[in-house]
Design goal:
406 residues; alpha/beta; TIM Barrel; three-stranded parallel beta sheet; 10 strands; 48% helix; binds alpha-D-psicofuranose; binds manganese (II) ion; manganese
């Protein structure tokens, strides 16, 4: 049945001029980093629900992440968050990760949970607090040296709730001061990925509110600083794929935090709410992947695809498997876009023809293709089922309740 479905799919795609071998090769090269915090307990300001079996420490978070990679072949690295993943010996955490077939990925500083940061961290009017915050950024650079991480992902909760509460321009200068100090401490192999978000926890102004501000800091800092697009961090209706195309063209797109949002920064499973947006993001990326400018091609090659979700009521490991499979599905669909066809329609000024050439790829069922590559890679064709049928979900129950939470 699978063979017949794939044969039909192959025939269909061939007729459209799609090179399926190339598509398969690209699909096999897709890497998605999962976040350590997605395996722990999380919640809202109303409640953090405690699930039985969540990891009790960073080492167990890597063990759970290894399950996701073992079954999907997509997730060889895990982002860490400091101090949530603080350990005495990062070398030991690195060896543990490697023993599980994983790498430690991006290091995420945490500048939002200490009492002193109520009025800001690196943008606090108090120089002592700014120093403490900047020292934490420097600590994260040191940790990245030990873990062998390339990327430092920065998200700041800094902002104000009321007009007049803070001096916006002074805070802008303090932000640059802290980022500059951190930038100088990085090794030449490292990258600073600057994330933005327009509100929450601050409700009047956020110091790094949008991609333009992140881009401006990255530009001032230098080539090792780039922008990180978290798909949940935009106002309703924002054209995220436009931002993606623009940043790639400026060679400043460093990576993504994938998740879904319906109302705010909901951190739901990526692809659960608006899979077409995810597909259109990949359309822009793939459009740039063949650019004649090698620097643009290089920017595309270096994009870090990361998940940033909190699984408040879902089972953590299945939620992560669902997430990465959703990304893989939309990437597979985007790989079916016939770019020459889109371009020809654009040249003719054929609005509907161009839209149709893009959308048609989205409408294909890529299940036979995904099954085929999983078989070729020696992976279960249905990773979710394989996980649920394994003993792992039962084994981890022995950990009990009250594991790691943010
Ligand atoms: C808070 O909005 C947030 O979701 C940001 O997206 C960060 O990347 C993440 O938390 C981890 O600090
Ligand atoms: Mn994020
Ligand atoms: Mn967020």
């Amino acid at each position: 049945m699978t063979d017949r479905a794939y044969a039909l799919f192959e025939e269909q795609q061939k007729a459209r001029g799609i090179d399926l071998e190339q598509v398969k090769q690209k699909l096999k090269g897709l890497k998605i980093e999962t976040p350590s915090w997605g395996y722990g307990d999380s919640g809202t300001r109303f409640k953090v629900f405690q699930q039985t079996g969540v990891p009790r420490n960073p080492f167990e978070k890597f063990e759970d992440a290894a399950q996701v990679h073992r079954l999907t072949g997509l997730c060889p690295s895990v982002a860490i968050h400091i101090p949530w993943d603080k350990v005495d010996d990062y070398g030991k955490l690195k060896s543990h990760a490697e023993s599980l077939g994983l790498q430690i990925g991006a290091v995420n500083p945490n500048l939002f949970q200490e009492e002193e940061y109520m009025l800001g961290s690196v943008t606090n009017a108090d120089p002592v607090i700014r120093r403490k915050a900047t020292d934490h950024l420097l600590e994260c650079v040191d940790i990245a040296k030990e873990t062998g991480s390339r990327d430092l992902s920065l998200w700041f909760a800094d902002g104000t709730n009321y007009p007049g509460q803070g001096d916006i321009r002074k805070r802008k200068a303090w932000m640059l001061e802290a980022l500059t100090e951190m930038y100088k401490a990085m090794t030449p192999q490292m990258r600073m990925l600057i994330e933005y978000k327009f509100f929450e926890p601050a409700f009047y102004h956020t110091d790094l509110a949008d991609w333009g501000m992140a881009y401006n800091y990255a530009l001032k800092l230098g080539p090792q600083a780039e922008v990180l697009v978290d798909t949940g961090h935009h106002a309703q209706g924002t054209n995220v794929e436009h931002i993606v195309a623009y940043l790639i063209d400026e060679k400043k797109l460093g990576g993504f935090h994938f998740n879904s949002r319906k109302y705010a920064d909901d951190d739901l499973i990526v692809g659960a709410i608006n899979p077409y947006e995810l597909f259109l993001i990949f359309y822009q990326i793939l459009n740039a992947a063949n650019d004649s400018d090698s620097e643009i091609r290089q920017t595309v090659d270096q994009i870090a695809y990361m998940i940033d979700q909190s699984h408040n009521i879902e089972q953590k490991i299945p939620a992560m498997i669902r997430s990465v499979l959703n990304v893989q599905t939309q990437y597979a669909k985007a790989l079916l876009i016939n770019h020459a066809e889109v371009e020809e329609a654009q040249q003719r000024g054929d609005v509907l023809g161009a839209e149709d050439a893009v959308r048609r790829a989205f409408e294909f069922d890529v299940t036979p293709l995904l099954h085929a590559i999983r078989e070729e890679q020696g992976l279960p064709v249905d990773p979710m089922k394989a996980y649920l049928d394994s003993s792992y979900p039962k084994d981890i129950l022995a950990r009990g309740k009250g594991g790691a939470s943010w």
